[in-house]
Amino acid sequence: MRDNDGLDKNPHISRSALAAIHSQVFGWALSRCDYDPMVAEDLMQQAYVELLSGKARFDNRSSLQTFVFSVVQNLARSRYRRIASRLRLLQAAGAVDTTVQPKEPHNNDALWQAVQELPTQQRDIIELVFCRDMTIAAAANVMGVTTGTGRVHYDRAKKTLRAKLTEYGVGFDD
Amino acid sequence: MTERESTLRAALRKAQAKHESDGIPDFDSVWAAAEREAGAALRRRGIFAGVAVVAAAVVLAVGVLPMNLSPTNRLPTKQQDLRYIDTDELLETTRWSAPSDSLLPEHQFDIYQEIPVLIESTETYGGALL
């Protein structure tokens, strides 16, 4: 971390350190918004605004990546809470159709599809541990759950994933 | 980590890379946009604080100052004090006494007319009426 590019309101964060994890943050933001790049960019920009304004303050208690991921996670949650409450209002007013349309899988990759079909918490921990090189403790921190709960999600995710891959005929046996 | 997990991890990364490799926005442009937004938010907060201060000042001016300027709270002016001084009386005599009436309230009542019943006591204390 360079001394001269620390943020005014977040002295433990430097611009260069953020630039170094930029693509990882974007990937995480993408997975928070069903892989919509525009929304992901907006989420990432909002996260940077939180860091610049000092609303989200980093104090070196975790790694910078874990911290920024948790900021993105919280922003995504509040964004979807807002959207959900607006939808409820619209539904109450009878303005929108409430039937849920099934989504097409993003591609036919069986593994990817299997991961995407996991329950949210299991999918998140698999993504953080497998794809973002986080420990279970760090991943649990990002998700806002205890390490014990994180371990439970991780174990269940692996079991579910194994069953799904067997079902799809994809083998990852030793 | 077992070999199965390692294999799974590698395969998952490869699958995920397909979805994340395209369209990563440039850090500098995202950062610049974030800086602009943070600056705008700061300015908005400044404007809001300014408006709040002005509004508070207006409320004080409208609510408090007239209360202080109402006739009951206003301090007597020199002109009002002078109304008790009779200029002719002053010029016609060499004697002058301070206009002590100016210290009295404006309403002067007749004690015999306005308070007809005087409180009296028939009980004595040490030979004197209470």
Give an overview of the whole structure.
The complex is a heterodimer of chains A (174) and B (130). By secondary structure, chain A is mostly helical. Chain A folds into 2 domains: 1-100, Rna Polymerase Sigma Factor, Chain: A (Orthogonal Bundle), CATH 1.10.1740; 102-174, Orthogonal Bundle (Arc Repressor Mutant, subunit A), CATH 1.10.10.10. Helix content of chain A is 64%, strand content 0%. Chain A is built from 8 helices and no strands. In chain A, helix 3 (37-53) crosses helix 4, helix 4 (64-92) packs parallel to helix 7 and helix 6 packs across helix 7 (136-143). The longest helix of chain A is centred in the middle third of the chain and has 29 residues, at 64-92. Chain A starts with 14 loop residues before the first helix and ends in a 6-residue tail after the last helix. Chain B has 130 residues and is mainly alpha-helical. Chain B has one domain. Chain B has 6 helices and 2 strands. Chain B has a two-stranded antiparallel ribbon. The longest helix of chain B is centred in the middle third of the chain and has 37 residues, at 27-63. The radius of gyration of chain B is 43 Å and the shape is elongated. The model of chain B has no long low-confidence stretch (mean pLDDT 76). The A-B interface holds A 15, 18-19, 22-23, 26-27, 30, 35, 37, 41, 44-46, 48-49, 52-53, 106-107, 109, 111-112, 115, 126-127, 130-131, 158, 161, 172-174 and B 2-5, 7-9, 11-13, 15-16, 18-20, 22-25, 27, 30-31, 33-35, 37-38, 41-42.
